[in-house]
Structures are given as structure tokens and as C-alpha cells.
Amino acid sequence: MRILFFVITSVLFFACEPEKEYHVNGGRIFGTSYRIVYESSEDHHNEIRSLLDSFNRSLSTYDSTSIISRINRCEEGVVPDPFFKKVFRTAQMVTDQTNGAFDMTVAPLVNAWGFGFQKMADVTSELIDSLLQFVGMHHIDIIDGKVVKKIPGVMLDGGAIAKGYGVDVVASHLTSLGVKNYMVEIGGEVATRGHNPQGNFWRIGIDRPIDDPLVLERKTELIVHLSGEALATSGNYRNFYIRDGKKYAHTIDPRTGYPVSHNLLSATIIAPSSMLADAYATACMVIGLEESIELVEGITDVEACFIIDSDGEYEVIYSSGFHQFLR
Questions:
Q1: Tell me, what's the pLDDT at 249?
Q2: Of 305, 322, 132, 183, which Cα lies nearest the Cα of 235?
Q3: What is the rounded distance in angstroms from the CA atom of residue 38 to the CA atom of residue 40?
Q4: Which residue from 299, 168, 203 is spatially nearest to 284, judged by alpha carbons?
Q5: Are strands 264-271 and 303-310 parallel, antiparallel or unpaired?
Q6: In sequence order, which residues have a C-beta less than 8 Å from that of residue 126 and are 6 or more positions away?
Q7: In sequence order, what DSSP letters do the residues of 239-274 get, joined into one string?
Q8: What average pLDDT does this structure show over 221-241?
Q9: Chain-centroid distance, C-alpha 88
Q10: How far apart are the first and last CA of the chain?
Q11: CB distance 230 to 164 below 8 Å
Q12: Of the chain's two ends, which shows fewer C-beta atoms within 10 Å, N or C?
């Protein structure tokens, strides 16, 4: 009788549980698209969208009322929110790790070259030299809850780190709701947990770095399998322009003031957070292949895949632990 009671009780208990299914939410944010797949008994898109909008109001340089935009204009009384503080402190750490190859204060240079939130300038060596005085994370800090600039002309660009953190924010929210299986993707930056609807690790494609600003010839170079990891890719094959027969890429070296020019076409980083993957991927595109390998091998729980131009052919180079994500 006890066994029968236990069986009946168990059946009733599980029958009362809401049925879970995989939801797919999508839209546009930060000037790009997002896609979120997760297993849940409820659709959480409205709250996710509200969260993304709040994040945008903190760190979007394309929103003139955002916290980062107001800080860039040196407005009085701007109080950085938790989103801004987290990105800023992480950026400081990555700047130190990369010896300045990653630097949020690159904004004046990015704008001058036509890749930022202000109108492109008539670039000369004199202009670049004059702008370099405003570049360097040592020129700005958060002190007693307020942003303090040592030089008024310092401006921040969160484009190489904020999108990754937006992914982490959504992923953290889903985790807080008890969601055990999800994939969050915003503009190619990804965070994963658990498994996909087929019960396997999440399959994430890494694009072949074809010069294709309109994304008309997209091809997959390889596929990685993730569960619990985050990923970001940086490259110079989508955002660039040609002038007088020369290619100008959107990756600006904060140390020289000029767009990078080397054989590293794309850098994909797998890390514990999408924010870190985003920042490290950008740093790698600045420093090139050799220094990137040295950087990644020196950081715990970070792996990388680099695609280079090898005499006109694509060549893929992996960090020592990357092969665990290839199946």
C-alpha cells in the first residue's frame, strides 16, 4: 500500500509541474541582432527586452541620454550604475593585462577614423598625435562613486566589451530564473549553459573571415561545441572601408592611433564570460598572432582560435586547449 501511495503521489506531482519547452526570442539591440534560445515553462522575452533596454541606457554611445554618453560630454552629476561600473572595472583589468592593447578611451581615435559615434575627421598624422593625449585608462577612474577625468577630452567607447557584458547580463537573468539550458547570442557574442533542444552541447559556428561588409557571402569555417562557456569573435572583415586602394579596418591600436594591419583576420575567444571573451578578442586583433598566443596561454580558462592569411590562404591556429571544443 505504501509503494502504491508513493507511485500515485509521484505521478500527481510530476503531472502538476508546468511543461517546459524551448523558446526562441529575437530582435535588435545595440545596433545589431540578438537571438536567445532557452528551456522554460514561460516565455521571458518581455523582461529580457526590458533588461536589454536598461543596459542600453547605460552603455550605448549611440544613445545621447545614456550614462556613457553623458560622461563623454563631461556632464555634471552623472552617477554610474552597476552596469557601467562592472564594464569599467573589467576594462581596467584587461587594459593592464594587454599592456594597453585594449583600451576604452580609444573613442576619439575610433571617431576620427570613421568607426565611432561621431562624424569622421580629415585624418592627418598631426590629428592622430593630438588625439593620443586623450587615450589611456590612467586618465579616468571611478572615485567615491563618480567618474573622474584627469583630462576633460577623454571619451569612452564600450563597443569592444559592452555587447559581451549584455550577453552575460541576460544569461545571468535566465540562471536566476532557474533556467538550466540556454544559449544567448547578441551580434555574435555568445553565452551557453546546459544543452540544446536535441540534448547536445550548443553548436556555435565561427565564420570564415571573408571581406563582406554586407554579409552576402557568409560561410562557416568551423563549429565549436559549448556548454557553460562564452564565446566572442573579433575581426576586420565586416567593418572596414577602402580609400585610395588601401583597406582601413575598424580595429584601432590605442597605442599608435592607427588601424591595425597584419595577417590576423579573426580571433575567437572562449572564456568564462562573454564580456571577457569580447575584450580579449579585440585585444588579440590589435596585437597580432604571436602576442595573442602568448596572451591567451597565460590566462586561466581562456582558449582561442585564430584565422590568419597565409599567402592568400586561410589558416586556422588553435591555443593549446581549444581542441576540447571541437567534436
A1: 72
A2: 305
A3: 6
A4: 299
A5: antiparallel
A6: none
A7: SEEEETTEEEES-B-TTTSSB--SSEEEEEEEESSH
A8: 88
A9: 14
A10: 50
A11: yes
A12: N
Compute CA distances 36 → 46, 53, 105, 187, 290, whole Å: 12, 15, 31, 11, 35
| 81 appears as a binding residue in the annotation | no
Record the cell numbers describing residue 183, joined without a space. Answer: 544559449
| Rounded Cα–Cα distance for residues 162 and 146 (Å) | 19
Architecture of domain 202-325: Roll (3.10)
Q: pLDDT per residue over 239-257, tens digit each?
A: 655 676 666 677 999 999 9
Query: Helix or strand or coil: residue 231?
Result: strand
8 A C-beta contact, residue 177 and residue 168 = no
CB 240 within 8 A of CB 211: yes
Kindly state the helix (H) or strand (E) to which residue 48 belongs, with its residue range.
helix 45-59
Q: Is 306 helix (H, G, I), strand (E, B) or coil?
A: strand
Tell me the pairing of strands 182-186 and 32-40. Answer: antiparallel
Among 183, 240, 176, 182, smallest CA distance to 209 is for 240
117: which strand partners? none
Residue 244, Cβ neighbours under 10 Å: how many?
Answer: 5
278 is in an annotated binding site: yes
CA distance readout (Å), 279 to 6, 92, 233 = 53, 11, 10
**Ligand-binding site membership of 141 (annotated):** no
Contacts of 45 (CB under 8 A, 6+ apart): 23, 25, 36
Give the bridge partners for 271, in sequence order.
230
pLDDT tens digits along 295-318? 999 999 999 999 999 988 999 999
CA torsion angle for 6, 8, 12, 14 (degrees, to 10)? 60
